[in-house]
Amino acid sequence: MRALGLWSLAILAAGTASLKSNQKRVTDAPTRNINAATNRYIVEVEKGNIAYMTRQFAAPSSRNSTYFRQFDCGDIFDGLVVETEIDNVDTLRAVHGVANVWPMKTVPMASAMQRVKAAPEAKYHNYSVHQWTGVDQLHAQGIRGKGVTVAIIDTGVDYTHKALGGCFGPGCKIAGGYDLVGTNCTNPPSTAGSGNKMKADMSWKGTLTMRNDIQRTQIKTLWTFMATEPMLIGVAPDAQLLSFKVFADNPWDTDEDVLIQAFCDAYGAGADVITASIGRPNGFADDPWALIASRIAEKGVVVTISAGNEGNTGPFYSSSGANGHSVLSVAAINVTGNPNISTTDPSAAPIPALFTSWGPTNELLLKPDIGAPGFEIVSTVPDNNFESMSGTSMAAPYIAGIAALYISKHGGRELHGPGFAKLLANRIVSSGVSIGWAADDIDLDFRAPPFQVGTGLVNALKVINYDTQLSFEPFSLSDSIQFRSRWAANITNSGNQTVIYSFELEPQAGVEILDPHYGIKTAYQLEPLRIVPKVQLPKHLVVPPGATRQVDFIFDFPQSVDDDYLPLYGGKVWVRGSHGEDLSIPYGGAAYDTEKAFDTMFLGEPFITDWGANWTWSFNADKDRFDFIELSARLSYPCFHLRWDIYDSYWTENHWQFPPVVGKLGYVGSAATMRDADTFWYYDPSRMDKDQTVSFPLLRVPRGYGKHWWFGKLANGSHIAPGNYTLRFAALRPYGNPNISDHWDIMRTPVRNIQVLPYNRTNSTTH
């Protein structure tokens, strides 16, 4: 049974204090299959063209797409989902009225471990995580989230659980929601039986009721809002909840279009806060889900998304939706000690959960934003039980709960306007308390950097009660070439006395990330370093009551660093008020040239497995199950654009044109490779379908190993004809211009004169 707690919004006491080394055994499982692409595409339509595009794809003579759907996103997004066997990114972008195209990817559901059959004993209440964050004191003030609506996007909710009110609908704690997928995500409601086209009204999103057969299976609940267990009180126990179910019983994956529609539905339902404990490694801020989450935040809705559980992979492995602008990416903190006991024991101090994913984004934007308790958290599971779980899935709803507390006291977007979500995100981020370094070893002489935990452990008292408001963008300094030195922030004093603010730099742990064999070090290889940039800080700033003043900061690029080892550095700028209020702004950058550092995108040479001297294939897997091309490559850095193109044998690189057009300059087409090949050891025709393909180019590919099986199918749906061909496999370098050949890292092994034999023959080479 699927545990209910990954998006549990109540996040409670974590049983007893435990050794930090135990973190490695109780986390959400990391994701597999770094590409996870499908033959579906998310298409954004230019404003005013949605009706035209809908007719175009609905016409019987149109692009022969298997089906399409139109998103129902109001003023957030005009777009379609298209499944096609004859198009790829290049051809869809060329359609009149198309603004952008993303290959759609699957997103896995993380699993959690370490089950507890009943709630912890009362004595464990003294070790509640709320004592670390100040939530317990806010509850004592009567601030409990009343009147706030929080939307949970995840696996569903067991509303019969006594801790969640035991009912569903108006007047209940679980007031409503949608089931977007039914029991089988591969065949969601209302998508079958409509010929070559599917309805464009998104009617598959279901109803407001949750069926018993759904709510009893792989569902998760919201602990952050639990109110009926006095020992396990949630962050915002009086908040009202909406549940949007985006994972089916089988398979335990969902698709990006489902997530996007769920966010749009939550926005349309009037949610004040939206939270999701979902994601996959991506690292690009223009991912479609991240983009929609950003647009919703721009409308004033607070959005929190888990940072991911791939911490062992090291830096530059941030999670998809959480990368959005003004979206709060939440890291997990281990707070299993007692904050009321003075001790020098490192095991009692808050440290990063070792599994929490590292940033920054691939554009060198600071992520994650903030940390919250996420290790050994007790949450609800079906049948009135409880489990102890770990993961950033526990941390994201904790921040959503704090947002609900703020809104219940100070009002939300209806009162403050569309800029409210940005305002509250700044309050939450600036509240962070610095915590000790932990990657492999614990070293409390260093502070965990913003690339790992944002500004640190959230302080809810600062968020709700401080008179000082900072308005800022995180100081993402970029690298040595694109270094941005000048930054500004606004300080608002909403109190009734004049405040003098002073400023202080807190350098945090720097790290050298170069691994000569794998490109970037894993977290367990990282060692903390002292890397301190010079910063021109104001001596002080006087802000009268009710006034706002701008303050400027000028950073110098750090000196005395060895850029050959690819150092990252970061920390915080503290803003300290004479009335005792202390807040901070994160800064961070790369002390190297990204383009130079990752000029070679491929670690080692991409290779075709067991190719012989003749390099001939007939792609007849019915006769010879090894008669296909297996191409493997390891990316040293996340790749925005990965191509596998086929040209006539005479083609050379000086003929490069972007995007290539079939029939021009010798271009034959892009390869369409078998889906999910990198999850299998070998091809087994009895249980795999080689016709389930994904067409190149692939976009926004995480760093790491990828394997591609090509059976001769092209992106336009045709099968390559017998003849001699040139193969071009290439990755666009960071910040590269795709129109310029030199900006691509191209497979150098000779791949000219690859011969394709007639289909009824068998490859003469040994594979």
Topology:
Layout: E1 37-45, H1 50-58, E2 67-70, E3 79-83, H2 89-93, E4 98-108, E5 115-116, H3 130-133, H4 135-140, E6 149-154, E7 174-179, H5 212-215, E8 240-245, E9 253-255, H6 256-268, E10 273-276, H7 288-298, E11 302-306, E12 328-334, E13 351-352, E14 370-373, E15 377-381, E16 385-389, H8 392-410, H9 413-416, H10 420-430, E17 436-438, E18 442-447, H11 450-453, H12 460-465, E19 468-471, E20 475-478, E21 486-493, E22 499-507, E23 509-512, E24 514-515, E25 519-520, E26 529-530, E27 535-536, E28 541-543, E29 548-555, E30 567-577, E31 582-590, H13 594-597, E32 607-608, E33 616-617, E34 629-635, E35 639-648, E36 667-670, E37 672-674, E38 693-695, E39 698-701, E40 704-710, E41 723-732, E42 744-746, E43 754-756
Parallel strand pairs: 6-8, 6-10, 7-8, 10-11, 11-12, 12-14, 20-31, 33-43
Antiparallel strand pairs: 1-3, 1-4, 2-3, 4-9, 5-16, 12-13, 15-16, 17-18, 19-21, 21-29, 22-28, 22-30, 23-26, 23-30, 24-25, 27-29, 30-31, 32-34, 34-40, 35-36, 35-39, 35-41, 37-38, 41-42, 41-43
Helix pairs in contact: 6-7
Report on the structure:
It is a single chain. The protein is α+β, with helices and mostly antiparallel strands and 767 residues long. It is 13% helix and 29% strand. The strands form ten sheets. Strands 6, 7, 8, 10, 11, 12, 13 and 14 form an eight-stranded mixed β-sheet that branches. Strands 20, 22, 23, 26, 28, 30 and 31 form a seven-stranded mixed β-sheet that branches. α6 packs parallel to α7 (288-298). The protein is globular, with a radius of gyration of 26 Å. Mean pLDDT is 84; it is low at 1-34, 113-120, 122-127, 187-221 and 762-767.
